[in-house]
Amino acid sequence: MSALKIKKGATSHSAYNLRPNFSDVEERHTLAVLVENEPGVLARVIGLFAGRGYNIESLTVAEVDHTGHQSRITIVTIGTPQTINQICAQLGRIVTVHEVHDLTVEGRAVERELALFKVAGKGDDRMEMLRLADVFRANVVDSTLESFTFEITGTSEKIDAFADLMRPIGLVEMARTGIAALSRGEV
Amino acid sequence: MSAKTMTGAKMVVQALIDQGVDTVFGYPGGAVLPIYDEIFQQNSIKHILVRHEQGAVHAAEGYARSTGKVGVALVTSGPGATNAVTGLTDALMDSIPIIVLTGQVPTFMIGSDAFQEADTVGITRPCTKHNWLVKETDQLSGVIHEAFHVATSGRPGPVLVDIPKDVQFASGSYNKAQPAKSHYQPQVKGDIDGITDLVTAIEKAKKPLFYTGGGVINSGPAASQLLRELVEATGFPITSTLMGLGAYPASGDKWIGMLGMHGLYEANMAMHDCDLMINIGARFDDRITGVIEKFSPNSIKAHIDIDPSSINKVIRTDIAIIGDVAHVLEDLLKVWKSRGRKTNAEKVGKWWDEITTWKKINCLAYTQDKKTIKPQHALARLEALTKDRKDRYITTEVGQHQMWAAQYLGFEDPNHWMTSGGLGTMGYGHPASIGVQMAHPDALVINIAGEASWLMNMQEMGTAVQYRLPVKQFILNNERLGMVRQWQELLHGERYSSSWSESLPDFVKLAEAFGAKGILCSDPADLDDAIMEMINHDGPVIFDCLVEKHENCFPMIPSGKAHNDMLLGDADTQGVIDAKGSVLV
Ligand SMILES: Cc1ncc(C[n+]2csc(CCOP(=O)(O)OP(=O)(O)O)c2C)c(N)n1
Ligand SMILES: [Mg+2]
User: Fold this and answer.
1) Any idea which ligand is nearest the CA of B484?
2) Is the dihedral of CA B553, B555, B561, B562 positive or negative?
3) Which residues on B lie below 8 Å from A34 (Cβ)?
4) Which of B62, B183, B216, B218 could pair covalently with B436 via S-S, beta carbons 3.0-4.6 A apart?
5) Which stretches make up the Thiamine pyrophosphate enzyme central domain (chain B) (predicted)?
């Protein structure tokens, strides 16, 4: 993986030309971190982000392999490419972290989030809510005479859009899971 | 696998024995009494009772650094564990393999704010490489074996095992080794493409420079041996960080001295001007780089490191090789030799001419008058009188004396220099010297100290006397927090806020109070005799060397400046650090 081909006479030129081209623009990356399911592993990961001043946009965690004691943490973070590289390397140093994947670099990943919305309303508003839910393929999971609770899955952008439409009608409360992500294609 | 049934407390001792441990530094308390009871009933492991848990951890570090083995400390729950935090952080910053075993309140009381309960794994999570709370006796031996594996594999570091008291009392099955192959297996062999790129760069470089660090020492004696071979064969100059001193001998003719904030003029100039920087086991620490934008602007940077997170962390690297130094250097030498051992000898010769001109500046020159001992002179004399002893081990505290020690003492071999680099922990050197002396009972172990640092862990004199450890505490007493005073002179208009040592003890009487020998020296004419008296005394010594109070440590790269912008002496140092530089530490 020699990305760097030392050119003839390169040593006499400015080394900066040879460096991997790190831009200073911040990017949003989704990381998948496979960890040993031991007490404290989440604290290690979160402590790393807090201690080194990295951003966490979203974080989800759950056991994915009971017999293998593995959990999968999905983290959405924002930083320059150099910072993102550093985050991956730092995660890799944690002894109970088995694998770190930058899904954004490894190819477009499937990203989904689930959200629950409680929306209050009467009369025409109720019709409007159901109409919007239909468009967004949200399901009603609970209802009273004056409210609906919807369940919606999709990309974070889709959930944001749904929230934006529900808010003026009477969005009371919302719970989001954060992103779960898998790389596309074959294994 | 042989599984024997025994108590958790016995398992701890058995696991240490099976891991080849001969010495444990520790301090008892309620939550580790069962382990102490087991220690009492065996003879394989020697327990050294320190006087403060911080001392136990630094002693374990000293032991580890001077032997290449794992250092072990044993402390009780709560305050015992919290007292260990500084040592753990120190070991983490300097990548020192140690194991700290802590007692914990019984599992059924965890979380109840029990007496001497502290969330030890929580507190130490950011200052250990890894830690474990063991809740079942059956898992205890496996965890301890894994702890040794983690402490020593990849980039070494401190680990902690927290053992509740009921787990120590309960019986379980003991395993002689790790239960299964550990998942943690860092890469040791370097990528051959990167190595080949580096060989190409070595063949072409006109102004090459080896910049080596503690990673060479951590990699083991073979790494230092291979480094020496590579340096001699290529004829390239070599500099090193504070942590790397001794990997290449100070008497070697390719050695151009330590680099960094208080590094030698020639070393820093070479760093600035080189066209190929070969970083071997160093981490571009800010004491080395100074201001990043001005750091060695025209060089290709190659970086060999076992820790992938060190690559591109601070300085962007052109040739990155992840692996263990010894493995990588072996392959590097193979490839370079097979391609005909080429270098651009003519250009490299010219590069040496430049370096020789810088050397002529003689940046370590000082003038010694007849009245007051200059700290540099004290060290120069100590060096002259001890340098022929192969068994000389030096530890230091933190401050000006530490930098002078690095400048004026020469190290011929790895593992003979123990200093707190990354954390800069005052109070490190004295307990570390005790750890070193335990590992090398007949060696000459000297702690170069400042009076302020030394007072931070002076209680360990009791340990030295109790175990007849003939450690020499060589205190350069300037009655100042000298390094702080120097910064206040440079940065804060000579307002010396709380940077002097008042009400100092009479160190000779203090030594005598502990049952050790005290020597006071203030006259330059007496210095040699006094040093010889210290060396020849068969027992611990406190040497109170009264030195010039206002001496500053040079060369110095002021904060915010480039390597080629060093201060060489007291010639007006006012206003050299601008506002931007003054926020840096
Ligand atoms: C535990 C700790 N506290 C504070 C400091 C900040 N500090 C660095 S050097 C120094 C002064 C050290 O004085 P001394 O040991 O007498 O050494 P000198 O510089 O005089 O040689 C201080 C306070 C530190 N490095 N470590
Ligand atoms: Mg002092």
Assistant:
1) 1
2) negative
3) none
4) B62
5) 195-332
